[in-house]
Prior knowledge:
Blueprint: H1 8-36, H2 46-70, H3 83-89, H4 91-99, H5 110-114, H6 116-137, H7 142-145, H8 147-170, H9 178-182, H10 187-192, H11 201-214, H12 240-259, H13 262-265, H14 268-295, H15 300-322, H16 327-335, H17 342-353, E1 362-365, H18 368-374, H19 381-386, H20 390-398, E2 400-403, H21 406-423, H22 433-438, H23 442-449, H24 453-470, H25 480-498, H26 508-523, H27 533-542, H28 550-555, H29 565-577, H30 582-600, H31 603-609, H32 616-625
Helix pairs in contact: 1-2, 1-15, 2-4, 4-6, 4-8, 6-8, 8-14, 11-12, 11-16, 12-21, 12-32, 14-15, 16-17, 18-26, 21-30, 24-25, 24-27, 24-29, 25-30, 30-32
Amino acid sequence: MHITLIPGELQELWDLWGLETLVLLSFIIQVILTVYGSRRKDIPGMWIRFTVWFTYFLSASLPKIIIGKLTVIPGSDPNKRNIIRELKALFAPLLLVQIGNPDAITAYSIEDNKLGLRQLLSLVLQVAVVIWIIIKSWTHSELSYLYLPLLTSGLIKHGELVWALKSALSKRSGIITIQEIDQEANMPGLFRFLPKDIPNIELILKAYYRFISLKPHRENWIYQPLYESLPQMSIDEYAPEDIFQITDAELSFMYDVLYTKAPIIYTKAGCTFRVLSFFNLVLTLCGFSVIFRRNFSRDLKACFIVGVLGGAVLMEAYQIAQLPFSDWAIIQMIKHQNIPLMIPCLRILGPQARNRKRWSNTLPQFNLLSFCIHDKPLTCGKILKLRSIDMWLKKNKYRTREKFPQELKALVVQEMKDIDGDRRLKPFNQRGEWSLGRYGSLNDIKWSVKRDFDKSIAIWHIATDICIYSDAQCNNSASPKIQMAKLLSDYMMYLLAMRPHMLSTTTAKIIFQHACDKLKDLLVQKEQSVNDEKEACRILKMEKAPQCSNSERKSETVVTSKWHMLKDAKRLARNLMARENKWQIICSVWVEMLCYAAANCSIDYHSEQIRRGGGLITHVWILLAHKTDKYHISD
Protein backbone atom coordinates (compact mmCIF):
# COMPACT_ATOMS: atom_id res chain seq x y z
CA MET A 1 0.00 0.00 0.00
CA HIS A 2 1.47 3.37 -1.09
CA ILE A 3 1.15 6.14 1.50
CA THR A 4 1.65 9.78 0.42
CA LEU A 5 2.46 12.34 3.09
CA ILE A 6 1.65 15.28 0.81
CA PRO A 7 -1.72 15.38 -1.00
CA GLY A 8 -1.46 15.29 -4.78
CA GLU A 9 -3.18 18.66 -5.26
CA LEU A 10 -0.78 20.34 -2.85
CA GLN A 11 2.20 18.74 -4.58
CA GLU A 12 0.96 19.97 -7.96
CA LEU A 13 0.45 23.48 -6.56
CA TRP A 14 3.98 23.46 -5.13
CA ASP A 15 5.45 22.24 -8.42
CA LEU A 16 3.65 25.05 -10.21
CA TRP A 17 4.21 27.94 -7.76
CA GLY A 18 6.87 26.71 -5.32
CA LEU A 19 9.68 28.77 -6.83
CA GLU A 20 7.57 31.93 -6.90
CA THR A 21 6.55 31.34 -3.27
CA LEU A 22 10.18 31.16 -2.19
CA VAL A 23 11.05 34.31 -4.16
CA LEU A 24 8.12 36.17 -2.57
CA LEU A 25 9.19 35.01 0.89
CA SER A 26 12.74 36.17 0.19
CA PHE A 27 11.42 39.58 -0.87
CA ILE A 28 9.30 39.92 2.29
CA ILE A 29 12.38 39.10 4.36
CA GLN A 30 14.31 41.88 2.62
CA VAL A 31 11.51 44.34 3.39
CA ILE A 32 11.58 43.37 7.08
CA LEU A 33 15.36 43.78 7.22
CA THR A 34 15.14 47.13 5.44
CA VAL A 35 12.64 48.48 7.97
CA TYR A 36 13.92 46.87 11.17
CA GLY A 37 17.58 46.06 10.43
CA SER A 38 18.92 49.19 12.13
CA ARG A 39 16.15 49.63 14.68
CA ARG A 40 17.81 47.16 17.03
CA LYS A 41 20.34 49.84 17.97
CA ASP A 42 17.61 51.96 19.57
CA ILE A 43 14.98 49.34 20.49
CA PRO A 44 15.99 46.99 23.32
CA GLY A 45 14.19 43.74 23.90
CA MET A 46 13.95 40.18 22.74
CA TRP A 47 11.33 40.58 20.01
CA ILE A 48 13.37 42.94 17.83
CA ARG A 49 16.53 40.85 18.22
CA PHE A 50 14.68 37.65 17.36
CA THR A 51 12.95 39.23 14.37
CA VAL A 52 16.19 40.57 12.92
CA TRP A 53 18.11 37.38 13.72
CA PHE A 54 15.49 35.09 12.18
CA THR A 55 15.04 37.14 9.01
CA TYR A 56 18.81 37.66 8.65
CA PHE A 57 19.33 33.90 8.92
CA LEU A 58 16.64 33.24 6.30
CA SER A 59 18.02 35.95 4.02
CA ALA A 60 21.32 34.08 3.92
CA SER A 61 19.80 30.61 3.47
CA LEU A 62 16.74 31.09 1.28
CA PRO A 63 18.51 32.46 -1.84
CA LYS A 64 20.78 29.43 -1.84
CA ILE A 65 17.73 27.15 -1.92
CA ILE A 66 16.19 29.16 -4.76
CA ILE A 67 19.42 29.18 -6.76
CA GLY A 68 19.62 25.44 -6.25
CA LYS A 69 16.14 25.05 -7.75
CA LEU A 70 17.07 27.31 -10.66
CA THR A 71 20.10 25.20 -11.56
CA VAL A 72 17.80 22.35 -12.62
CA ILE A 73 16.12 24.52 -15.28
CA PRO A 74 16.85 22.85 -18.64
CA GLY A 75 19.17 24.70 -20.99
CA SER A 76 17.92 26.71 -23.95
CA ASP A 77 16.95 24.86 -27.12
CA PRO A 78 17.73 26.80 -30.32
CA ASN A 79 14.88 25.01 -32.12
CA LYS A 80 12.20 25.61 -29.48
CA ARG A 81 11.62 28.62 -27.21
CA ASN A 82 10.46 27.99 -23.63
CA ILE A 83 8.90 31.15 -22.16
CA ILE A 84 8.47 29.64 -18.68
CA ARG A 85 12.19 28.78 -18.56
CA GLU A 86 13.14 32.34 -19.56
CA LEU A 87 10.82 33.81 -16.94
CA LYS A 88 12.25 31.57 -14.22
CA ALA A 89 15.81 32.43 -15.25
CA LEU A 90 14.95 36.09 -14.57
CA PHE A 91 14.80 35.18 -10.88
CA ALA A 92 18.55 34.42 -10.85
CA PRO A 93 19.86 38.01 -11.25
CA LEU A 94 16.95 39.24 -9.11
CA LEU A 95 18.27 37.04 -6.30
CA LEU A 96 21.65 38.78 -6.55
CA VAL A 97 19.88 42.03 -5.72
CA GLN A 98 18.33 40.38 -2.67
CA ILE A 99 21.53 38.63 -1.60
CA GLY A 100 23.16 42.07 -1.55
CA ASN A 101 21.19 42.74 1.66
CA PRO A 102 19.53 46.04 2.57
CA ASP A 103 21.59 49.07 3.58
CA ALA A 104 20.36 48.66 7.16
CA ILE A 105 22.22 45.41 7.88
CA THR A 106 25.29 43.66 6.50
CA ALA A 107 26.09 41.64 9.62
CA TYR A 108 23.93 40.51 12.51
CA SER A 109 26.75 40.23 15.04
CA ILE A 110 30.44 40.89 15.35
CA GLU A 111 31.07 37.20 14.65
CA ASP A 112 29.64 37.66 11.14
CA ASN A 113 32.33 40.25 10.45
CA LYS A 114 35.00 37.91 11.79
CA LEU A 115 33.78 35.27 9.33
CA GLY A 116 33.83 37.85 6.54
CA LEU A 117 36.33 35.97 4.37
CA ARG A 118 34.19 32.85 4.44
CA GLN A 119 31.14 34.89 3.48
CA LEU A 120 33.02 36.55 0.64
CA LEU A 121 33.93 33.19 -0.89
CA SER A 122 30.31 32.05 -0.60
CA LEU A 123 29.05 35.22 -2.27
CA VAL A 124 31.51 34.89 -5.16
CA LEU A 125 30.38 31.31 -5.71
CA GLN A 126 26.73 32.39 -5.80
CA VAL A 127 27.54 35.04 -8.41
CA ALA A 128 29.25 32.41 -10.55
CA VAL A 129 26.21 30.10 -10.35
CA VAL A 130 23.82 32.94 -11.26
CA ILE A 131 25.92 33.87 -14.30
CA TRP A 132 25.96 30.20 -15.34
CA ILE A 133 22.14 30.04 -15.08
CA ILE A 134 21.83 33.15 -17.26
CA ILE A 135 24.22 31.77 -19.88
CA LYS A 136 22.39 28.45 -19.90
CA SER A 137 19.02 30.16 -20.38
CA TRP A 138 20.11 32.76 -22.96
CA THR A 139 18.04 32.76 -26.20
CA HIS A 140 18.75 36.23 -27.72
CA SER A 141 15.09 37.10 -27.15
CA GLU A 142 13.88 40.47 -25.82
CA LEU A 143 13.38 38.83 -22.44
CA SER A 144 16.94 37.50 -22.36
CA TYR A 145 18.39 40.98 -22.82
CA LEU A 146 16.60 42.08 -19.64
CA TYR A 147 18.92 39.75 -17.74
CA LEU A 148 21.77 42.21 -18.33
CA PRO A 149 20.54 45.36 -16.50
CA LEU A 150 19.14 43.21 -13.69
CA LEU A 151 22.46 41.35 -13.46
CA THR A 152 24.30 44.69 -13.38
CA SER A 153 22.13 45.89 -10.51
CA GLY A 154 22.62 42.58 -8.70
CA LEU A 155 26.40 42.72 -9.14
CA ILE A 156 26.44 46.27 -7.75
CA LYS A 157 24.38 45.28 -4.70
CA HIS A 158 26.56 42.23 -4.32
CA GLY A 159 29.68 44.37 -4.60
CA GLU A 160 28.35 46.75 -1.94
CA LEU A 161 27.97 43.86 0.48
CA VAL A 162 31.46 42.52 -0.28
CA TRP A 163 32.88 46.04 0.10
CA ALA A 164 31.07 46.58 3.41
CA LEU A 165 32.19 43.23 4.84
CA LYS A 166 35.77 43.78 3.73
CA SER A 167 35.75 47.31 5.13
CA ALA A 168 34.39 46.21 8.52
CA LEU A 169 36.82 43.28 8.61
CA SER A 170 39.91 45.33 7.76
CA LYS A 171 39.01 48.11 10.19
CA ARG A 172 38.46 45.72 13.07
CA SER A 173 42.17 45.15 13.59
CA GLY A 174 45.43 46.93 13.06
CA ILE A 175 47.22 49.79 14.76
CA ILE A 176 46.15 53.34 14.09
CA THR A 177 49.03 55.33 12.65
CA ILE A 178 49.83 59.04 12.57
CA GLN A 179 49.41 58.87 8.79
CA GLU A 180 45.79 57.80 9.20
CA ILE A 181 45.18 60.66 11.60
CA ASP A 182 46.81 63.12 9.19
CA GLN A 183 44.35 62.05 6.49
CA GLU A 184 41.71 63.94 8.46
CA ALA A 185 43.97 66.97 8.92
CA ASN A 186 41.38 69.21 7.26
CA MET A 187 38.83 68.47 9.98
CA PRO A 188 39.82 71.43 12.22
CA GLY A 189 39.17 73.70 9.24
CA LEU A 190 35.62 72.44 9.04
CA PHE A 191 35.02 73.68 12.59
CA ARG A 192 36.27 77.15 11.65
CA PHE A 193 33.92 77.48 8.68
CA LEU A 194 30.97 75.78 10.32
CA PRO A 195 27.79 77.92 10.24
CA LYS A 196 27.22 79.01 13.83
CA ASP A 197 23.49 79.61 13.41
CA ILE A 198 22.61 75.98 12.61
CA PRO A 199 22.04 74.06 15.85
CA ASN A 200 23.35 70.55 16.48
CA ILE A 201 25.67 70.18 13.47
CA GLU A 202 28.73 71.08 15.56
CA LEU A 203 27.95 68.20 17.92
CA ILE A 204 27.67 65.73 15.03
CA LEU A 205 30.92 66.95 13.48
CA LYS A 206 32.61 66.69 16.87
CA ALA A 207 31.34 63.12 17.26
CA TYR A 208 32.57 62.18 13.78
CA TYR A 209 35.99 63.75 14.37
CA ARG A 210 36.39 61.89 17.65
CA PHE A 211 35.24 58.64 16.05
CA ILE A 212 37.54 58.68 13.03
CA SER A 213 40.48 59.75 15.20
CA LEU A 214 40.01 57.09 17.87
CA LYS A 215 38.38 54.32 15.80
CA PRO A 216 37.16 52.65 19.00
CA HIS A 217 36.01 49.49 17.24
CA ARG A 218 39.61 48.59 16.47
CA GLU A 219 41.24 46.06 18.73
CA ASN A 220 44.47 48.06 18.98
CA TRP A 221 44.97 51.74 19.47
CA ILE A 222 48.48 52.69 20.49
CA TYR A 223 48.73 56.44 20.86
CA GLN A 224 48.26 58.91 23.66
CA PRO A 225 44.88 60.65 23.98
CA LEU A 226 44.53 63.15 21.18
CA TYR A 227 42.47 65.64 23.14
CA GLU A 228 45.71 66.92 24.69
CA SER A 229 47.16 68.06 21.36
CA LEU A 230 43.95 68.58 19.36
CA PRO A 231 41.58 71.00 21.09
CA GLN A 232 38.79 70.06 18.68
CA MET A 233 38.74 66.62 20.32
CA SER A 234 37.88 67.93 23.78
CA ILE A 235 34.29 68.00 25.01
CA ASP A 236 35.09 69.03 28.60
CA GLU A 237 33.41 72.43 28.24
CA TYR A 238 30.14 71.04 26.90
CA ALA A 239 26.98 70.57 28.95
CA PRO A 240 26.34 66.98 30.13
CA GLU A 241 23.37 66.64 27.76
CA ASP A 242 25.55 67.68 24.80
CA ILE A 243 28.35 65.35 25.91
CA PHE A 244 25.97 62.40 25.79
CA GLN A 245 24.58 63.67 22.48
CA ILE A 246 28.12 63.56 21.06
CA THR A 247 28.70 60.12 22.53
CA ASP A 248 25.38 58.89 21.11
CA ALA A 249 26.42 59.97 17.62
CA GLU A 250 29.93 58.53 18.03
CA LEU A 251 28.55 55.11 18.97
CA SER A 252 26.05 55.39 16.12
CA PHE A 253 28.96 55.84 13.70
CA MET A 254 30.58 52.78 15.25
CA TYR A 255 27.40 50.74 14.80
CA ASP A 256 27.13 51.75 11.15
CA VAL A 257 30.74 50.81 10.43
CA LEU A 258 30.32 47.36 11.96
CA TYR A 259 26.81 46.41 10.88
CA THR A 260 25.61 48.50 7.90
CA LYS A 261 26.61 49.79 4.46
CA ALA A 262 26.66 53.43 5.58
CA PRO A 263 30.47 53.94 5.41
CA ILE A 264 30.55 52.92 1.74
CA ILE A 265 27.26 54.46 0.61
CA TYR A 266 28.25 57.97 1.69
CA THR A 267 31.21 58.09 -0.70
CA LYS A 268 31.41 59.27 -4.32
CA ALA A 269 31.76 55.69 -5.56
CA GLY A 270 28.94 54.51 -3.30
CA CYS A 271 26.53 57.19 -4.52
CA THR A 272 27.47 56.52 -8.15
CA PHE A 273 26.86 52.80 -7.79
CA ARG A 274 23.58 53.42 -5.98
CA VAL A 275 22.22 55.61 -8.80
CA LEU A 276 23.43 53.11 -11.40
CA SER A 277 21.81 50.21 -9.54
CA PHE A 278 18.49 52.05 -9.25
CA PHE A 279 18.59 53.03 -12.93
CA ASN A 280 19.12 49.41 -13.99
CA LEU A 281 16.26 48.20 -11.79
CA VAL A 282 13.92 50.81 -13.29
CA LEU A 283 15.14 49.91 -16.78
CA THR A 284 14.40 46.23 -16.15
CA LEU A 285 10.94 46.99 -14.78
CA CYS A 286 10.05 49.28 -17.68
CA GLY A 287 11.41 46.86 -20.27
CA PHE A 288 9.59 43.91 -18.78
CA SER A 289 6.36 45.94 -18.48
CA VAL A 290 6.48 46.70 -22.21
CA ILE A 291 7.12 43.04 -23.08
CA PHE A 292 4.51 41.96 -20.54
CA ARG A 293 1.80 44.22 -21.96
CA ARG A 294 2.54 43.04 -25.49
CA ASN A 295 2.98 39.29 -24.94
CA PHE A 296 2.12 38.11 -21.40
CA SER A 297 -0.79 40.26 -20.24
CA ARG A 298 -2.72 37.19 -19.08
CA ASP A 299 0.18 35.15 -17.76
CA LEU A 300 0.05 34.92 -13.95
CA LYS A 301 3.75 34.13 -13.63
CA ALA A 302 4.61 37.21 -15.67
CA CYS A 303 2.27 39.26 -13.44
CA PHE A 304 4.15 37.94 -10.43
CA ILE A 305 7.51 39.02 -11.89
CA VAL A 306 6.15 42.52 -12.56
CA GLY A 307 5.04 42.71 -8.93
CA VAL A 308 8.40 41.54 -7.57
CA LEU A 309 10.36 43.90 -9.85
CA GLY A 310 8.09 46.77 -8.81
CA GLY A 311 8.66 45.90 -5.17
CA ALA A 312 12.43 45.85 -5.70
CA VAL A 313 12.29 49.31 -7.31
CA LEU A 314 10.15 50.69 -4.48
CA MET A 315 12.48 49.25 -1.83
CA GLU A 316 15.50 50.77 -3.56
CA ALA A 317 13.71 54.11 -3.84
CA TYR A 318 12.85 53.95 -0.13
CA GLN A 319 16.50 53.34 0.79
CA ILE A 320 17.64 56.24 -1.41
CA ALA A 321 15.01 58.50 0.16
CA GLN A 322 16.37 57.63 3.62
CA LEU A 323 19.95 58.61 2.78
CA PRO A 324 19.69 62.34 3.71
CA PHE A 325 18.30 61.52 7.16
CA SER A 326 21.58 60.29 8.61
CA ASP A 327 24.52 61.69 10.53
CA TRP A 328 26.75 60.53 7.66
CA ALA A 329 24.79 62.72 5.24
CA ILE A 330 25.21 65.74 7.52
CA ILE A 331 28.98 65.14 7.65
CA GLN A 332 29.14 65.03 3.83
CA MET A 333 27.09 68.23 3.61
CA ILE A 334 29.47 69.94 6.04
CA LYS A 335 32.49 68.77 4.02
CA HIS A 336 30.93 70.09 0.80
CA GLN A 337 29.15 73.15 2.17
CA ASN A 338 30.57 75.30 -0.66
CA ILE A 339 28.25 73.47 -3.08
CA PRO A 340 24.92 75.27 -3.62
CA LEU A 341 21.95 73.89 -1.65
CA MET A 342 24.17 72.26 0.99
CA ILE A 343 23.66 75.03 3.57
CA PRO A 344 19.85 75.11 3.08
CA CYS A 345 19.80 71.33 3.47
CA LEU A 346 21.84 71.62 6.66
CA ARG A 347 19.39 74.19 8.03
CA ILE A 348 16.58 71.67 7.56
CA LEU A 349 18.33 68.44 8.54
CA GLY A 350 20.65 69.71 11.30
CA PRO A 351 18.01 70.60 13.91
CA GLN A 352 16.07 67.41 13.13
CA ALA A 353 19.13 65.29 13.88
CA ARG A 354 19.01 66.21 17.56
CA ASN A 355 15.75 64.32 17.98
CA ARG A 356 17.04 61.28 16.10
CA LYS A 357 16.99 58.18 18.29
CA ARG A 358 20.44 56.58 18.31
CA TRP A 359 20.04 54.25 21.29
CA SER A 360 17.31 53.19 23.68
CA ASN A 361 18.14 55.93 26.22
CA THR A 362 17.04 53.59 29.00
CA LEU A 363 18.68 51.96 32.01
CA PRO A 364 17.95 48.27 32.62
CA GLN A 365 17.23 47.68 36.31
CA PHE A 366 17.47 44.57 38.44
CA ASN A 367 16.96 44.63 42.19
CA LEU A 368 18.26 41.61 44.08
CA LEU A 369 15.97 42.06 47.11
CA SER A 370 12.87 42.40 44.96
CA PHE A 371 13.89 39.32 42.99
CA CYS A 372 14.35 37.22 46.13
CA ILE A 373 11.07 38.41 47.66
CA HIS A 374 8.89 37.72 44.64
CA ASP A 375 10.73 34.78 43.10
CA LYS A 376 8.33 31.90 42.55
CA PRO A 377 8.80 28.56 40.78
CA LEU A 378 7.94 28.70 37.09
CA THR A 379 5.45 26.44 35.36
CA CYS A 380 7.38 23.44 34.03
CA GLY A 381 10.22 24.69 36.22
CA LYS A 382 11.82 21.27 36.62
CA ILE A 383 12.02 20.76 32.88
CA LEU A 384 13.36 24.27 32.34
CA LYS A 385 15.93 23.76 35.09
CA LEU A 386 17.26 20.72 33.27
CA ARG A 387 17.87 22.97 30.28
CA SER A 388 19.44 25.67 32.51
CA ILE A 389 17.03 28.35 31.33
CA ASP A 390 14.75 28.63 34.35
CA MET A 391 16.95 31.22 36.06
CA TRP A 392 17.32 33.18 32.82
CA LEU A 393 13.54 33.36 32.45
CA LYS A 394 13.12 34.43 36.07
CA LYS A 395 15.70 37.19 35.72
CA ASN A 396 14.02 38.52 32.59
CA LYS A 397 10.68 38.50 34.38
CA TYR A 398 11.94 40.84 37.12
CA ARG A 399 14.18 43.00 34.93
CA THR A 400 12.74 46.47 34.30
CA ARG A 401 13.79 49.55 32.35
CA GLU A 402 13.88 53.17 33.43
CA LYS A 403 14.33 56.25 31.27
CA PHE A 404 17.87 57.66 31.51
CA PRO A 405 17.33 60.97 33.36
CA GLN A 406 19.25 64.18 32.68
CA GLU A 407 20.23 64.37 36.35
CA LEU A 408 22.07 61.06 36.08
CA LYS A 409 23.88 62.23 32.94
CA ALA A 410 25.10 65.28 34.83
CA LEU A 411 26.15 63.14 37.79
CA VAL A 412 28.10 60.67 35.64
CA VAL A 413 29.89 63.44 33.72
CA GLN A 414 30.87 65.31 36.90
CA GLU A 415 32.06 62.19 38.71
CA MET A 416 34.13 61.14 35.71
CA LYS A 417 35.76 64.58 35.64
CA ASP A 418 36.61 64.23 39.33
CA ILE A 419 38.05 60.76 38.74
CA ASP A 420 40.12 62.03 35.79
CA GLY A 421 41.87 64.39 38.18
CA ASP A 422 43.08 61.42 40.22
CA ARG A 423 43.60 59.05 37.31
CA ARG A 424 45.74 61.25 35.04
CA LEU A 425 45.24 59.19 31.85
CA LYS A 426 46.26 55.93 33.51
CA PRO A 427 44.33 52.76 32.59
CA PHE A 428 41.36 52.32 34.91
CA ASN A 429 42.45 49.97 37.71
CA GLN A 430 40.44 51.24 40.70
CA ARG A 431 36.83 50.47 41.63
CA GLY A 432 36.07 52.93 44.38
CA GLU A 433 39.33 53.90 46.05
CA TRP A 434 39.67 57.23 44.25
CA SER A 435 36.14 58.22 45.28
CA LEU A 436 36.57 57.07 48.88
CA GLY A 437 39.85 58.98 49.07
CA ARG A 438 38.20 62.21 47.94
CA TYR A 439 35.60 61.92 50.72
CA GLY A 440 38.06 60.85 53.43
CA SER A 441 36.50 57.41 53.80
CA LEU A 442 39.27 55.24 52.43
CA ASN A 443 40.47 53.82 55.76
CA ASP A 444 37.00 52.76 56.94
CA ILE A 445 35.43 51.47 53.72
CA LYS A 446 38.36 50.43 51.54
CA TRP A 447 37.83 46.77 52.45
CA SER A 448 34.47 46.76 50.61
CA VAL A 449 35.98 47.72 47.26
CA LYS A 450 39.03 45.45 47.62
CA ARG A 451 36.86 42.34 47.49
CA ASP A 452 36.50 40.58 44.15
CA PHE A 453 34.61 42.88 41.79
CA ASP A 454 31.42 40.81 41.68
CA LYS A 455 31.41 40.51 45.48
CA SER A 456 31.87 44.27 45.83
CA ILE A 457 28.87 44.88 43.57
CA ALA A 458 26.68 42.53 45.62
CA ILE A 459 27.77 44.11 48.93
CA TRP A 460 27.28 47.69 47.73
CA HIS A 461 23.95 46.85 46.11
CA ILE A 462 22.45 45.48 49.33
CA ALA A 463 24.04 48.22 51.45
CA THR A 464 22.62 50.88 49.11
CA ASP A 465 19.11 49.45 49.52
CA ILE A 466 19.49 49.39 53.32
CA CYS A 467 20.59 53.04 53.29
CA ILE A 468 17.74 54.03 50.97
CA TYR A 469 14.99 52.48 53.07
CA SER A 470 16.56 53.65 56.33
CA ASP A 471 16.82 57.27 55.21
CA ALA A 472 14.00 59.58 56.31
CA GLN A 473 14.26 61.46 53.00
CA CYS A 474 13.39 58.29 51.14
CA ASN A 475 9.71 58.57 52.00
CA ASN A 476 9.15 61.66 49.86
CA SER A 477 12.07 61.13 47.47
CA ALA A 478 13.36 64.57 48.45
CA SER A 479 16.94 63.90 47.41
CA PRO A 480 17.81 63.39 43.73
CA LYS A 481 21.01 61.71 44.96
CA ILE A 482 18.91 58.89 46.43
CA GLN A 483 17.18 58.36 43.10
CA MET A 484 20.51 58.38 41.23
CA ALA A 485 22.05 55.95 43.73
CA LYS A 486 19.09 53.60 43.26
CA LEU A 487 19.35 53.73 39.46
CA LEU A 488 23.10 53.08 39.47
CA SER A 489 22.85 50.31 42.06
CA ASP A 490 20.12 48.44 40.19
CA TYR A 491 21.93 48.95 36.87
CA MET A 492 25.16 47.45 38.19
CA MET A 493 23.21 44.52 39.64
CA TYR A 494 21.60 44.08 36.21
CA LEU A 495 25.08 43.76 34.71
CA LEU A 496 26.05 41.23 37.38
CA ALA A 497 22.87 39.18 36.99
CA MET A 498 22.25 39.33 33.26
CA ARG A 499 25.38 40.62 31.51
CA PRO A 500 28.21 39.22 33.68
CA HIS A 501 30.64 38.93 30.76
CA MET A 502 30.73 42.74 30.60
CA LEU A 503 32.16 42.83 34.13
CA SER A 504 35.23 40.80 33.13
CA THR A 505 34.65 38.36 35.97
CA THR A 506 34.32 34.59 35.74
CA THR A 507 32.49 34.00 39.02
CA ALA A 508 29.51 36.36 38.64
CA LYS A 509 26.94 33.57 38.29
CA ILE A 510 28.24 31.85 41.43
CA ILE A 511 28.19 35.11 43.40
CA PHE A 512 24.68 35.96 42.21
CA GLN A 513 23.30 32.55 43.16
CA HIS A 514 25.07 32.67 46.53
CA ALA A 515 23.64 36.13 47.27
CA CYS A 516 20.13 34.93 46.34
CA ASP A 517 20.43 31.87 48.57
CA LYS A 518 21.64 33.86 51.59
CA LEU A 519 18.93 36.49 51.26
CA LYS A 520 16.20 33.89 50.85
CA ASP A 521 17.49 31.97 53.88
CA LEU A 522 17.22 35.12 55.98
CA LEU A 523 13.79 36.15 54.72
CA VAL A 524 12.12 32.73 55.07
CA GLN A 525 12.96 32.67 58.80
CA LYS A 526 10.21 35.22 59.40
CA GLU A 527 6.79 33.85 60.24
CA GLN A 528 5.08 36.58 58.22
CA SER A 529 5.77 36.87 54.52
CA VAL A 530 7.93 39.78 53.36
CA ASN A 531 6.13 41.79 50.68
CA ASP A 532 8.42 44.66 49.77
CA GLU A 533 12.01 45.87 49.75
CA LYS A 534 11.51 48.22 52.69
CA GLU A 535 10.45 45.38 54.98
CA ALA A 536 13.30 43.22 53.69
CA CYS A 537 15.81 45.98 54.45
CA ARG A 538 14.42 46.36 57.98
CA ILE A 539 14.98 42.63 58.53
CA LEU A 540 18.47 42.84 57.03
CA LYS A 541 19.31 45.73 59.31
CA MET A 542 17.94 44.17 62.51
CA GLU A 543 18.28 40.41 62.20
CA LYS A 544 21.44 38.40 62.56
CA ALA A 545 22.58 36.43 59.56
CA PRO A 546 21.59 32.75 59.88
CA GLN A 547 24.36 30.34 60.80
CA CYS A 548 25.41 27.84 58.16
CA SER A 549 24.91 24.16 58.94
CA ASN A 550 27.66 21.64 58.27
CA SER A 551 25.88 20.41 55.15
CA GLU A 552 25.57 23.98 53.85
CA ARG A 553 29.26 24.62 54.49
CA LYS A 554 30.16 21.51 52.52
CA SER A 555 28.00 22.67 49.61
CA GLU A 556 29.76 26.05 49.48
CA THR A 557 32.04 26.68 46.51
CA VAL A 558 35.68 27.71 46.82
CA VAL A 559 34.65 31.20 45.72
CA THR A 560 32.10 31.71 48.52
CA SER A 561 33.27 29.42 51.34
CA LYS A 562 34.89 32.16 53.47
CA TRP A 563 32.70 35.05 52.39
CA HIS A 564 29.97 36.32 54.72
CA MET A 565 27.97 38.37 52.27
CA LEU A 566 25.21 39.59 54.60
CA LYS A 567 27.67 40.56 57.34
CA ASP A 568 29.72 42.54 54.84
CA ALA A 569 26.64 44.32 53.50
CA LYS A 570 25.38 45.23 56.98
CA ARG A 571 28.83 46.40 58.04
CA LEU A 572 29.10 48.63 54.97
CA ALA A 573 25.59 50.00 55.49
CA ARG A 574 26.41 50.94 59.10
CA ASN A 575 29.57 52.74 57.99
CA LEU A 576 27.71 54.66 55.32
CA MET A 577 24.71 55.62 57.46
CA ALA A 578 27.04 57.15 60.03
CA ARG A 579 28.13 59.77 57.46
CA GLU A 580 26.25 62.90 56.46
CA ASN A 581 27.63 62.77 52.92
CA LYS A 582 26.75 59.11 52.40
CA TRP A 583 24.82 59.74 49.17
CA GLN A 584 27.72 61.58 47.59
CA ILE A 585 29.97 58.66 48.55
CA ILE A 586 27.55 56.01 47.29
CA CYS A 587 26.94 57.72 43.94
CA SER A 588 30.63 58.40 43.45
CA VAL A 589 31.66 54.82 44.19
CA TRP A 590 28.99 53.43 41.87
CA VAL A 591 30.18 55.64 39.03
CA GLU A 592 33.78 54.57 39.64
CA MET A 593 32.74 50.91 39.62
CA LEU A 594 30.86 51.53 36.38
CA CYS A 595 33.95 53.15 34.88
CA TYR A 596 36.10 50.20 35.95
CA ALA A 597 33.66 47.74 34.37
CA ALA A 598 33.45 49.78 31.15
CA ALA A 599 37.21 50.23 30.78
CA ASN A 600 38.01 46.55 31.35
CA CYS A 601 35.21 45.12 29.22
CA SER A 602 36.19 43.56 25.88
CA ILE A 603 35.67 45.66 22.74
CA ASP A 604 33.65 42.79 21.28
CA TYR A 605 31.14 43.01 24.14
CA HIS A 606 30.78 46.76 23.66
CA SER A 607 30.31 46.15 19.93
CA GLU A 608 27.62 43.64 20.81
CA GLN A 609 25.94 46.03 23.25
CA ILE A 610 25.38 48.76 20.66
CA ARG A 611 23.24 46.34 18.60
CA ARG A 612 21.14 45.48 21.67
CA GLY A 613 19.75 48.97 22.25
CA GLY A 614 22.96 50.44 23.63
CA GLY A 615 23.86 50.92 27.26
CA LEU A 616 25.32 53.34 29.78
CA ILE A 617 28.39 51.15 30.23
CA THR A 618 29.29 51.55 26.54
CA HIS A 619 28.82 55.33 26.67
CA VAL A 620 31.15 55.48 29.66
CA TRP A 621 33.66 53.26 27.82
CA ILE A 622 33.84 55.59 24.81
CA LEU A 623 34.28 58.63 27.07
CA LEU A 624 37.10 56.92 28.95
CA ALA A 625 38.80 55.72 25.76
CA HIS A 626 39.46 59.29 24.66
CA LYS A 627 41.22 60.03 27.95
CA THR A 628 43.16 56.83 28.54
CA ASP A 629 46.78 56.26 27.67
CA LYS A 630 46.44 52.52 27.17
CA TYR A 631 50.11 51.79 27.73
CA HIS A 632 50.64 54.73 30.11
CA ILE A 633 53.48 56.15 28.04
CA SER A 634 54.90 59.09 29.95
CA ASP A 635 57.07 61.84 28.55
